[in-house]
Amino acid sequence: MSEVFDRLKAYLEKGNALSRAQILFEWDTATLAPKLADENTAQVVGILSDMYLNAYVNEDVKQCLKELEKEEEFGKLSFVEQVEVEELRKLVGRLEKIPPREYREYSELKAKSISIWTEARKQGDFAKFAPVLAKIIEFKKKFASYRMNPEKHSCLYDAVLEEYEPGFTVEKLDEFFGLVRRELAPFVKEVVPKAECVDKSYNAKFYEVGKQKKFNHMLAEYVGFDFEKGVMTESAHPFTTSLHNKDVRITNHYYEHNLESAIFSVIHEAGHGIYEMQVDDAFTGTLAGEGTSMAMHEAQSRFFENIIGRSKAFWKPLYGKLVSVFPEQLGEVGLEQFISAINKPTPGPIRTEADELTYPLHVLIRYEVEKLIFNQGVSVEELPNIWNEKYEEYLGVVPKNAAEGVLQDVHWSGGDFGYFPSYALGSAVAAQIYCQMKQSLPFEECLEEGRLEEIREYLKEHVHRFGKSKDTNEILKRMMGEEFNPNYYVKYLKEKYTELYL
Amino acid sequence: MSEVFDRLKAYLEKGNALSRAQILFEWDTATLAPKLADENTAQVVGILSDMYLNAYVNEDVKQCLKELEKEEEFGKLSFVEQVEVEELRKLVGRLEKIPPREYREYSELKAKSISIWTEARKQGDFAKFAPVLAKIIEFKKKFASYRMNPEKHSCLYDAVLEEYEPGFTVEKLDEFFGLVRRELAPFVKEVVPKAECVDKSYNAKFYEVGKQKKFNHMLAEYVGFDFEKGVMTESAHPFTTSLHNKDVRITNHYYEHNLESAIFSVIHEAGHGIYEMQVDDAFTGTLAGEGTSMAMHEAQSRFFENIIGRSKAFWKPLYGKLVSVFPEQLGEVGLEQFISAINKPTPGPIRTEADELTYPLHVLIRYEVEKLIFNQGVSVEELPNIWNEKYEEYLGVVPKNAAEGVLQDVHWSGGDFGYFPSYALGSAVAAQIYCQMKQSLPFEECLEEGRLEEIREYLKEHVHRFGKSKDTNEILKRMMGEEFNPNYYVKYLKEKYTELYL
After folding, report:
1. Which residue in B20, B51, B285 is closest to A14 by CB distance?
2. Nearest chain B Cα distance for residue A237, angstroms
3. Burial of A439 (0-12, 13-18, 19+ CB in 10 A)
4. Contact between residue A400 and residue A443 where contact means Cβ atoms under 8 Å apart
């Protein structure tokens, strides 16, 4: 028992309660709140964020953290408490550099911006979103500049990236995306023509939304999303949020003329959700009670979406059910064709609808655009053109309008710059985990027989339960004796796509 | 400009943000949150409630309020600021008497108890809810005892009642319910046999929930619930909540074999919602930014539900639409029969499904039970029997089980003791407002021609816009030169039911 920690505990509890409240408002705004609520709700969120900042950044907390630097005091703490102190130290380090007024203004801005983006996207009108985006970028630049540390950061974007993926700097990401560009871009060009003959016209037929919802609800449950600890509703852009490990929320979005979209979104978000649900109860309500990093989070969601969800073994016991829901649309489509179709590499404008192979190129584009914004000072007005040029260069497609171009992702409206690289890193981590998992589990058999709990158990044991108490590299190292290594990813994709189409 | 108020403003903003967060959690728990979330969420709510208490109850706030007692300082405030200071004074007066630890424990308890009640009610198992109820009552008794003021309260229940309807003590309510018992109970006995022949068997036919939802959504919009400022979802027990006047939420509950239930719930809740939406923007985000009292709130909801919603004039332009949604079930039922049926006085066990005439008897029962709890120390275990005996006495029915008996209402699970009388008071206030409104508006014509905006405008002008800046009696006095007078209610009911059935 440490008296110092007891003192700290009161602040930790307040900070946690205030951040949960903000998360709930964010969820509510994205899924339910009425259109005209924004302005007043944003003020409320601004005040909560201000209190949140004050709960962590104050003299008493600093004093406690200082006292806990002493080994003998730190030694009195339980393991979970030690982890929490370390997390708090990092958090305070980040927050204390931001002037409270700016933090509050930024929080208010964010609370409004998502629905401005939603509206702008609906109308395909970038000009509607541009002024807000410019303000968000201005804040992010300022905040990153406060964090700049010449020992760790060689450019402003490094400081932006650190928020989601500590240790993954532009230097490292350039290396990673260099590999993607070198190895995968030409491979895409090789595979795409070979797969062109795969007929997936069935996907654009009419699929009644009510039936889609029912099937996808079943699917979420099937892969292991526990509806006693979670809910699923709808939003413009599917996402996952978590209040704690027994209250995890995912959303989906349904299209009448796109069957795949909702199916793979739901498996993806369920992957995020299962990660949060499987964090050890010991961490619930603490700063360590969530996934360790965005790359590791995306590793889970993309593991479920692609490695599980786009495999033949997974669909063997399931595909018949899907056909029985949509017999007219799918009656003529066999399992083999379905598998070829859901993996078909098709360069297109939309990231979230991309196949597994072209996906990293979408992320590469966002990475390059964000580098331009933060390191080259490219303006908001230039973004639509830059975006379109890069799509033409890497994917050979030009977005028809801003809705399928620069406006397509929700992330920037929420201030999530520096997040995108995690998607590609996550895919790479997923491939690495997969390689290791196959050595201890009859992976295909588990899928064919619907024994997904064995896969979930493996992930829980080796990844999920640790919450933030171990970082990405520590988890990988513990699991397989090796830190992050993107070569697994290249190998995995090449093998999979060679088998499918070459 | 007052520097003192500026200082106070910071606390008011915090208190408002924290109470909005708690309201959102409460809404979320009742409508969406997963089953297993409760325990952790309750902790979060407990901490938020603790911060809420601290935001208002502290030395600096007391000091500010003291300085604002000086006329010259108070005179510097705008009208809205003055109102807010008065509201804050009352609130602090109430809150400061409660020990912070008890307040937090109570808030945590409430955050869990609604879903325990929901579960218990589903299973009709009072024993599951009894221990929680006992704890809630214990807290309410304690809190009321802290508030006890011999000058205002002649018994403990007086102090309970004050929370919702200041000025309406047991003495006054005994008088009011005495009138109900004296005038209405025998009138009910006279009317019921005469109305027995009205056939409303159509109401228990099968009505597809999807179609009900669509119709009721239209109905909410038709009576004036603005979906740009509000949302409607579902919960076990219909209710209304408001984050501010541009974010008002109502719920409904649908039954496959009861058409009326959802229809009149939705009109009722929309009435509450419209009141909140029409509070003047000047009060938004302040302590005065909501309906002035629970009786006035119920006056609005019951005005919409009964005086508008159960009138022939209202259904004239609408009934055809309802028939077209359910032609098989309603094809043979004419408008006259429908009106007779939706008003048919039928003594039954469920308050929310009661007709307008027997309704006050349901409330009378709750009033008497609550008096027994707070003034006579009746125990939780005795409640089911007492409840059933009173139902037999006043309504001649015995609930088949706890779900349609003592477990039927959500209120006690949320600690809302002392609230029920407001339902009957509200009905009486509604009748009083109606009497006045008819003198300046062609009421029936407005309904027959679907011009409900004129009725809403009248209510806005004379009631809604004031928020909490005028109390119930001030509003009535301003509107018609007379304070609360229940004789309007008796007269209204007798006239209406005489015309319908005698």
Report:
1. B51
2. 19
3. exposed
4. no
Instruction: Report phi then psi at A291, rounded to 5.
Output: -55, 150
DSSP state of A419: -
For residue B49, the chain A residue with the least C-alpha distance is A17
Q: In one letter, which amino acid is B172?
A: K
The span from the CA of B232 to the CA of B209, in Å, is: 15
Question: Are B179 and B486 a contacting pair, CB within 8 Å?
Answer: yes
Q: CA A184 to CA B481: how far, in whole Å?
A: 82
Minimal Cα–Cα distance from B166 to chain A, Å? 29
Residue B51 to residue A18: CA distance in whole angstroms:
10
Q: With an 8 Å Cβ cutoff, are A40 and B230 in contact?
A: no
| Residues of chain B contacting residue A221, judged by C-beta atoms under 8 Å apart | none
Instruction: Give which of B248, B173, B179, B182 is closest to B420, Cα–Cα.
Output: B173
Catalytic one among B269, B305, B353, B370? Answer: B269
> Which residue carries 């007391």 as its tokens?
B62
Q: Residue B134 contacts by C-beta under 8 Å, 6 or more apart in sequence?
A: B379, B380
Q: Around Cβ B440, how many Cβ atoms within 10 Å?
A: 11
- Residues of A annotated as catalytic are 269
Q: Return the residue matching tokens 């786009």.
A: A310
Tokens of B253: 């509950």
Distance separating alpha carbons of residues A60 and A66, to the nearest angstrom: 10
The DSSP bridge partners found for residue A357 are none
* Token output for B94: 């109430």
Chain A: which residues have CB within 8 Å of chain B? 13-14, 16-18, 20-21, 24-25, 28, 32-37, 39-41, 43-45, 47-48, 51, 227-231, 233, 243-244, 246-248, 284-285
CB A286 within 8 A of CB A16: yes
3-class DSSP state for residue B206? coil
Give the integer Cα–Cα distance in Å for B362 and B354.
Answer: 8
Q: How far apart are CA A329 and CA A337, in angstroms?
A: 13
What are the Cα distances from residue B48, in Å, to A15, B375, B417?
Answer: 10, 32, 22
Give the span between the Cα atoms of B406 and B424, in whole angstroms.
18
The Cα of A33 is separated from the nearest Cα of chain B by a number of Å equal to 7
Contact B227 A34 (CB under 8 A): yes
CB contact under 8 A, B17 and A47: yes
Nearest by Cα to B54 from B98, B22, B105: B98
Q: Which pair of tokens denotes residue B413?
A: 């699970």
- Tens digit of each residue's pLDDT, chain A (502 residues): 789 999 999 999 999 999 999 999 999 999 999 999 999 999 999 999 999 999 999 999 999 999 999 999 999 999 999 999 999 999 999 999 999 999 999 999 998 898 899 899 999 999 999 999 999 999 999 999 999 999 999 999 999 999 888 889 999 999 999 999 999 999 999 999 999 999 999 999 999 999 999 999 999 999 999 999 999 999 988 999 999 999 999 999 999 999 999 999 999 999 999 999 999 999 999 999 999 999 999 999 999 999 999 999 999 999 999 999 999 999 999 999 999 999 999 999 999 889 999 999 999 999 999 999 999 999 999 999 999 999 999 999 999 999 999 999 989 999 999 999 999 999 999 999 999 999 999 999 999 999 999 999 999 999 999 999 999 999 999 999 999 999 999 999 999 999 999 9
Please report the DSSP string for A162-198 in residue order.
TTTSTT--HHHHHHHHHHIIIIIHHHHHHHHHHHTT-
A230-234 and A247-252: which strand pairing? Answer: parallel
Residue B446: CB atoms within 10 A of its CB come to 20
Classify strands A240-244 and A247-252 as parallel, antiparallel or unpaired.
antiparallel
| Residue A262 near residue A254, CB atoms below 8 Å | yes
What number is the ipTM of this complex? 0.92
Residue A246 is nearest to which of B37, B47, B285, comparing CB atoms? B37
Amino acid letter for position B479: M
